[in-house]
Amino acid sequence: MKITKLRHSRERGNPEPKALRSRPWIPAFAGMTKWWGMGAGLALALAGYAGIASAQGAAGIDDETQPPAAARAGGPPPMPQPITLARRPGATGGEALYVEHCAMCHAPNGMGTGLLTRRGRPEALLEKRGDLVAAFVVLAARNGIGNMPAIPRGEVSDAQLQAIADYLAAGPHGVTP
Q1: Residue ranges of the domains in the chain?
Q2: pLDDT tens-digit series, residues 137-158
Q3: Which CATH code, of 1.10.3470.10, 1.10.760.10, 2.40.128.630, 1.20.1330.10, is assigned to 93-169?
Q4: Residue ranges of the alpha helices (H) in 22-110?
Q5: Which end of the chain is more exposed for a tag (fewer CB within 10 A), N or C?
Q6: In 60-157, which residue ranges form alpha helices assigned H by DSSP?
Q7: What's the CA gap between 45 and 76, in Å, rounded?
Q8: Against a cut of 0.90, is the pTM above it?
Q9: pLDDT per residue over 89-126, tens digit each?
């Protein structure tokens, strides 16, 4: 519709609108720029992925168990590995439930640990704290505290939460992440 109006406007001798004078507009390519932009974005993403892979290969990062060359050469320490039940095969009871439901945020690389560190807690890892009371853990988990969301009973039952709280209250635990 705009093209028709613009053509009729030109036929009547009216000048082009200012927006169209600054750049040429080709109607045949109008819809293709959207698709070309998506293709270019995908190509850039793939090129970036290939660049990361080749950089990791050059740095000697071939296996997940092998530390990066920068860490071996005195660079920053590597990120801690996530805590899973596979890494703690002997975990039972409250410890197993803690690893399954809580460690994703309260492990060394979790968001909850980072937030507790910024709040000035001397020991942000819940498993290494010795000052936790079971009733506080249950209350904080059910109602949420700070940035921690409330954990509903459909996700963790009362019995499971009590087992987690008893495990944390019996701390500090000498676990290695």
Answers
A1: 2-72, 93-169
A2: 999 999 999 999 999 999 999 9
A3: 1.10.760.10
A4: 32-59, 69-72, 93-101, 103-106
A5: N
A6: 69-72, 93-101, 103-106, 111-118, 134-143
A7: 27
A8: no
A9: 888 999 999 999 999 999 888 999 999 999 888 888 99
